[in-house]
Amino acid sequence: MRSDQNGMFDKDQFLLGTFSTNCSGGMSVTKVPERWVSSWDNNLNLARMLDAAGIDFMLPIARWIGYGGETNFHGSVLETMTWAAGLTASTSNITIFATAHINPNHPVVVAKQIATIDQISRGRVGLNIVAGWNKPEYEALGLTLPDGHEERYQYAQEWFDIVKALWTKTESFDWEGKIFHLKNVLGDPRPARRVPIINAAGSSEGRAFAVRNADFLFTPAIDLSRSTDEVRALKAQAAEAGRSVGVLTFSHVVCRPTEKEARDYLQYFAQDNADWAAVDNLVRLQFSHAQSFPHDLLALIRDRMAAGHGGFPLVGTPEQVADGIVALQAAGFAGTTVSFVDYLAEFPYFRDTVLPILADRGLRRPVAAAVGSAFAAQVPA
Asked: Where are the domains of the chain?
């Protein structure tokens, strides 16, 4: 990684990351026994594996209650600030994001936490800002989720304006805003490098916030023909604001030597053994309080929720999975996260078979030969 900036700002390759490894089940709402266990040891082993393979980032989900069902999907979750601090201390190149819900987390505290992790990581920390959508979770914390998106993002703007001030001002200052009233605050230490900011937004208010403030806007890719127009419009909206925003999405990978093997495994974990009660709770909450997913594609989204939390399906042989990633780039995305039923068991096969294809096609730089020679292709069971 270049010393002058975080590696997320590298425009020379299609970005790849992982999503939700800090949460039980990862991204798959399934009952299969091999589903992801979000223990610290598993996350640490995976982070080191991703780091060696040249993967760009890890993105966590901040959750406080699960989604019920037989598995209580996302019921066990590692807190993201401490998770990010521990992982950056144990890796060398990969960027680790922390996720902060704005209402439960005071901006002065978050600014200090990220500045501290910036020192631990030597400039490899990012911040994922969540304006809030999960009403039962807010109720569990004794908080009220504002009904309107406009109110949520007015709060988010002042919250992040304070964070930015703490990261840039070199003298103590007072803050008299509509929401926050601060006296004699100072950000010390401050991040030594620009911290990459991610925001996922579906509403018009949310996307206006993202293009004003985020470096990366996170959005689902349900239909790539729609996505092409959507990404183009988001980039134009950012350009009107005098900014450049990369658009990221999320994907779920089932990669096997044959397409039949991949399709059979998808059927096994995402249909025959899906935790449909948890899926329906997740879909109901998303559609009641968020605008992340297009409501006219409910049936398709429900199936994809079971497989990978609504992520774009990358299912098939290594060539077919690579084709899907190429299609995402062609639609205008700057990168994608990838998830697996069991990240530790399945990522090595993706690393050894798909990453070289992406390098051959010019989307990714080749992994260093010394690292690659230590990898032996493993086919997931």
From this structure: 7-372
pLDDT computed for residue 373 by the predictor: 35
Question: What is residue 268's DSSP assignment?
Answer: I
Place of tokens 């509403």: 203
- The SS3 assignment for 104 reads coil
Distances (CA, A) of 352 to 126, 173, 252, 344, 366: 27, 52, 17, 13, 11
CA–CA distance, 360 with 92 (Å, rounded to integer): 25
CATH topology of domain 7-372: TIM Barrel (3.20.20)
236, 147, 301, 156 alpha-carbon torsion, rounded to 10°? 40
Give strand pairing partners of 59.
19
Structure tokens at 247: 């658009």
Classify the C-alpha dihedral 42-56-328-278 as positive or negative.
Answer: positive
Q: Quote the distance between the C-alpha of residue 55 and its chain's center.
A: 13
Distance CA 83, CA 100 (A): 12
pLDDT in tens, 99-112: 999 999 999 999 99
Q: What is the 3-state secondary structure (H, E, C) of 21-81?
A: CCECCCCCCECCCCCCCCCHHHHHHHHHHHHHHCCCEEECCCCCCCCCCCCCCCCCECCHH
Residue type, 211: V
H/E stretch holding 52? helix 40-53
Residue corresponding to tokens 């631990």: 120
Q: How far is CA 137 from CA 74, 78, 282, 308, in A?
A: 12, 16, 12, 21
Cβ partners under 8 Å of residue 96, min gap 6: 47, 57, 58, 83, 84, 87, 88, 117, 121, 124, 125, 126
3-state class of 254 per DSSP? strand
Cβ neighbours around 180 below 10 Å, total: 16
pLDDT per position as a tens digit, 283-324: 887 665 544 455 455 566 777 788 888 899 999 999 999 999
pTM of the model: 0.92
DSSP string, 134-168: -HHHHHHTT----SSHHHHHHHHHHHHHHHHHHHH
Cis peptide before 189 (omega within 30 of 0): yes
